[in-house]
Amino acid sequence: MNPSAPLSFEPPRGMRDFYPEDMLWRNRVFDAWRQAAVAFGFQPYDACVVESLELLQRKSGEEVSEQIYHFEDKSGRHLALRPEMTPTLARMVAARHGQLTFPLKWFTLAQCFRYERMTRGRKREHYQWNLDIIGEESVSAEIEILAAAAAGLRAMGLPDAAYRIRVNNRALLAELLAKSGIDAAYHPAVFLALDKRGKISDDEIAALLKAEGLDSDAVAKAFELLAVQTLDQAAALAGADSPALAALRELFSLAEVYGIADRLVFDISVIRGLAYYTGIVFEAFDTERKFRAIFGGGRYDSLLTMIGGAPTPAVGLGFGDVVVVEVLKDLLGEAAAAEKRGVIVGYMFPEQREAATRLARTLREAGETVDLQLGRQKPKQFFSRASASTAADAVFIGPDDVARGTAKRKNLATREETEIPLN
Asked: What's the gap between Cα 250 and its chain centre?
């Protein structure tokens, strides 16, 4: 390292700084997440950002193990920055399994890290809203989580017509693969390969499947299943007595009751690459498919047993902040997050500082947000700053206002003025 070399002011590649204008968007998303989670009865939790590498590596058969920021501490422990929250949640639940009352409905806003190739909508760190229901076997858990996610999107200001939640069942795909003559031992590899569709070419996917031991006929049959468009087509292949198909039909029926059926779409190509998913899986995309998935998740009934815990059914959702902010900016415009509220207060000469400070104190004690300017300003300078701020109203105090004992509170949008007492 050359100590005389100029220091870069950029954050490490793939990481982010959040200036105040960025925090407006972040807060819009975070506030909507918390609002929706609380409205649906989810309880908050949190955990350490550094996790045991062994725990994260238990989930074999996925790319995340290659993307972990891992290190050895001074005591020789192998640790990592968490790439996702679900393994940590599973560890926490397993640690107190006998003390908890199921089903659990928990949520968190977690910062996660993955060293991966960056593309639009993908960073090497992001914040993620996790919703999980643990201990419920029925599809009531899936639909509750999907409805909460839809409520979160609505709270952000995203129109219902702007996105669709694509739903599949890995168990159904496994049934169809079995009926096609593909042995269950190959199913995890098929899931992982087909999940890459759209990211790599079909020829590359076929090569991956052949490398796992599938012959050309089996590869062709795997691709044929992705041509299934509707539940009725899936039923014709799986049979009317398919439990996986019945679960999907029940989910879509409950979606009508929840009022979100217009946003749910069956899509057999939704697979999810993570090895621990066992049943219904889902991903949400903007309607025009201009961006990466907004959120994704599904049922992971075997994860607790994979890490040594008691068998426990579970459903979870991971909803990152990067893509949804891009979607919101695209639909609503860059300035949409700058909601105007509160008051900005300024004064002309030092003699009015006390009156301005007392007014700011009075308004704050009344529960208002007040941005008190800390030095004297000319009227033009003050109102220029006020217009560029996030304040809805402005109060500028001059000598005449102090003498009169009142000032004018101006609505910066409408220019309407009302009298406000200074005493």
From this structure: 26
CA 147 and chain centroid, separation: 14
Q: E strands along 27-121, which residues?
A: 43-44, 50-52, 70-72, 78-81, 104-113
Task: Look at residue 7 and tell me if it is in a domain.
Answer: no
Instruction: Say yes or no to pLDDT of 193 above 50.
Output: yes
Crossing angle for the helix pair 140-156 and 20-39, nearest 10 degrees? 140
Sign of CA dihedral 374, 376, 381, 387: positive
Strand 370-372 relative to strand 343-347: parallel, antiparallel, unpaired?
A: parallel
Q: How many Cβ atoms from other residues are within 10 Å of residue 412's Cβ?
A: 17
CB 87 within 8 A of CB 52: no
d(CA 355, CA 360): 9
Task: Give Rg (Cα) of the chain.
Answer: 27
What contacts 404, CB < 8 A, 6 or more positions away? Answer: none
Domain co-membership, 360 together with 251: no
In angstroms, the Cα distances linking 147 to 150, 170, 297, 383 are 5, 21, 13, 44
C-alpha–C-alpha distance, residues 297 and 131, integer Å: 9
Number of H helices, E strands in the chain: 15, 16
Residues 90 and 155 in one domain: yes
Residue 15 lies in a domain: no
Q: Is residue 13 part of a domain?
A: no
Q: What is the DSSP string of 310-360?
A: ----EEEEEEEHHHHHHHHHHHH-GGGG----SEEEEESSGGGHHHHHHHH
pLDDT in tens, 72-121: 999 999 999 999 999 899 999 999 999 999 999 999 999 999 988 877 77
Query: What are the CA-CA distances from residue 174 to residues 168, 180, 195, 227, 289 (Å)?
Result: 11, 10, 14, 15, 27
